Amino acid sequence: MTTHDRVRQQLHALETLLREHRHWRLDAPQAHLFTSTQPFFMDTMEPLEWLQWVLIPRMHTLLDNTQPLPEAFAVAPYYEMALAADHPQREAILAVLQDLDALFARDES
């Protein structure tokens, strides 16, 4: 299995987790919320919204177009801080994100 395949697998796992726990929104955020220049759009979106509306679609676009994946990639550290310690799915979300981050620490493609 290629790194691209493993990344896609982790993105699907993340989406499934968000859907199963009702963190997946059906209504897209307003267009102006996507114009943020802050990391993780922290000034315009909630952390789980950014996963759904920015990270997952952008990564799928790279994968679908067989584009190179980012070389330096780590989102789990932000989510360790951004998700409340008592968030019911915190550990599950962090586990998926840590697995995703680990794929970018490898030198294979």
Describe the structure.
This protein is mostly helical. The chain has one domain: YqcC-like (de novo design (two linked rop proteins), Up-down Bundle). The protein has four helices and no strands. The chain has helices at 3-20, 47-64, 76-82, 90-103. Helix 1 packs antiparallel against helix 4 (90-103). The relative contact order is 0.19. The model has no long low-confidence stretch (mean pLDDT 93). Pfam families: DUF446. To the N-terminal of E.carotovora exoenzyme regulation regulon ORF1. The C-terminal part is colinear with YqcB. This is YqcC family protein. InterPro entries: UCP006257, YqcC-like_dom, YqcC-like_sf. Residues 7-103 form the YqcC-like domain.
| Total domain count | 1
Low-confidence stretches: none
Describe the oligomeric state of these chains in a short phrase: single chain
- What order do the SSEs take from the amino end to the carboxyl end, as H and E? HHHH
Report how far the terminal alpha carbons are from each other.
10 Å
Quick synopsis:
The protein has 4 helices and no strands. The chain is mainly α.
Key words describing this protein structure:
109 residues, mainly alpha, 4 helices, 52% helix, YqcC-like_sf, UCP006257, YqcC family protein, YqcC-like_dom
